[in-house]
Amino acid sequence: MKSDRESHLLALSRLPPPSHPAYACALGLLIAIALILTLRGGTEWDGDDALYIMNARNIVLGLPYGNTPYIFNPANPINPTSYPPGFPLLLAPIYWLFGVSFAKMKVLCIVCFAAFVSIFARIAVRYVSPGLALAAAAVVGMHPYYWDFKDTLYSEFPFMFTCYAALLLIDKVQRANDRHLVDIAAAIIALAAAYLIRAIGIVVFPAALLSALMISRRAIALTSALLGCAVLIILIIQRIFPADLGTYVGYFRDFSLHGVHMALLRYGRVRSTIIGTAVVNRVPVVATCLELALGLMVLVGFLAQVLRHRISVFEMFFIGYICFLIIYPVTLEPDRYAMPIWPFLFLYAASGLAVLMRFVAPVGRRIASGAIAAVIVGCYAAQYSAFASVPLIYPIEAPPSLALFAAIRGQVPTDAVVLTRKPTTIALLTGRRATVWGLNDDDSQLWDYITRQRVSYIVQERYRVFEANRDPNAVIDGFVERNEPKLQLVFRNAWYNLYRVASTS
Predict the structure, then answer these.
(1) Considering only CA atoms, which of 166, 279, 271, 159 is closest in space to residue 229?
(2) pLDDT-derived band at 297, boundaries 50, 70, 90
(3) Same domain, yes or no, for 255 and 310?
(4) Containing H/E element for 406?
(5) Are residues 419 and 381 in the same domain?
(6) What's the DSSP call for residue 440?
(7) Distant-in-sequence contacts of 215-224, Cβ < 8 A, 24+ apart
């Protein structure tokens, strides 16, 4: 028996230490497997995903990058005319191999998220013990919001992968006495990719330069060269695949101090999503206590990093990203726009926890650790249960949606223009040109737009949809009701009406 115990201990002693990268990679692999196995068989009507795929299709077919059947309406800029080329470039090989496959493209995003988790674990080791770093990465990787997000086709997961890779590599290059060419080249590529996937990746550039200012002149020179090379790559790729960045910049026309105040309130409410809306709705008092505790640990962890160590590129990025969110005048989906920096909140919370645990006896640490683990498991279990009980609403793969696409392909001429709430999805899956009505159009304005764009068909959704506490179908529903004699119903099912515009006079 003793020899068996000794051999077992000997085998354990031969395992790599917790700081070994293999554990971070294994964690990422396990999370990828779990997310892929729990993918739901459907895709909600969104619009962003369809435009990404159309841009990827143009890359594969050698067509002008931004030349898609989607017609941009400046009175309702739900999507730009084309997205930054980073994500479509990642989707292009999948489109080349499988065509329009939402499922396979979602798997690509999951793989990117798993790679991010592995990278985040390596970042966390710079702040806390290896064991706590892996635990923090696991808490991030298994967060219910990310699990639910996997069923969408957005660019956030690839962005998080490239952005955190760039931050890790920049920090490594800035810290190292001997700079390796491989690390520098990888940092340049990751930095360019982060920006090309999501324009908010621009925040990494000043973060890298400001952190270098606190190190040495050599670090400043090296970081400046690194940033310059990344900018050159970005300019070349954007020259080949020009994106519509003007729409994003145009949002700043709505900037105001009142908007900043509202953004602070809006993003402050994201804390409920981080804790879990299931807990917030069922036991609000407990949720408030958890939010306060999490906020305290984040504050302690962040201050500990700032006071005991230099402010690194990670802190600069964290602060810069928050500032950008606050001043950027976009009111929709605050949870989604904030999610790329949630991992830092968990990291600073872990760091703050480590600081606070120094004042607790060993027995108390074990009790506190167990209690914290139980709370996290309980919150996650409640939120997973809430998500699992809510099916996908009106997925594009459902029979009524497929029937609509078939009706448009069969009854709508190839040169016709369709007016619809989700024009990019209609454009991708039917091949018809499509556009959306103005956000606040009255009948005369909408008729004017229909005439100018030569709209000949209208898709009306028969179900209720709410976005940011408003009904986005209100304009078209009222228009159809008031102008029914000028519209001819050519297709109808449980979810949709398809009208032909019989007269514009």
Answers:
(1) 166
(2) very high
(3) yes
(4) helix 399-411
(5) no
(6) T
(7) 215/174, 215/175, 215/310, 219/174, 222/173, 222/174, 222/179, 222/184, 223/170, 223/173, 223/174
DSSP string, 65-127: TT--SB---TTS-SS-SS--SHHHHHHHHHHHHHSS-HHHHHHHHHHHHHHHHHHHHHHHTTT
Tokens 């990278």 sit on residue: 119
Assess whether 283 and 184 both reside in one domain.
Answer: yes
pLDDT at 249 > cutoff 80: no
Flag whether 31 is in a domain.
no
Instruction: Rounding to the nearest 10 degrees, give the CA dihedral for residues 308, 309, 313, 314.
Output: -40
Q: Do the domain assignments include residue 284?
A: yes
Confidence of residue 11 (pLDDT cuts 50, 70, 90): low
Q: Are residues 432 and 289 in the same domain?
A: no
Q: How many domains does the chain have?
A: 2
Q: Could you tell me whether strands 455-461 and 417-419 are parallel, antiparallel, or unpaired per DSSP bridges?
A: parallel
SS3 64: coil
Whether 8 has a pLDDT exceeding 90, the answer reads no
d(CA 182, CA 499): 58
405 shares a domain with 359: no
In sequence order, which ranges of 241-361 are alpha helices (DSSP H)? Answer: 246-250, 257-268, 270-275, 277-282, 284-308, 313-327, 334-338, 342-357
In the chain, % helix, strand, coil (3-state, to 5) comes to 70, 5, 25
420 and 341 both lie in a single domain: no
Is residue 439 a contact partner of residue 485, using CB atoms and an 8 Å limit? no
Range of the domain at 484: 399-501
pTM, to two decimals: 0.92
Residue range 90-99: mean pLDDT, rounded: 96
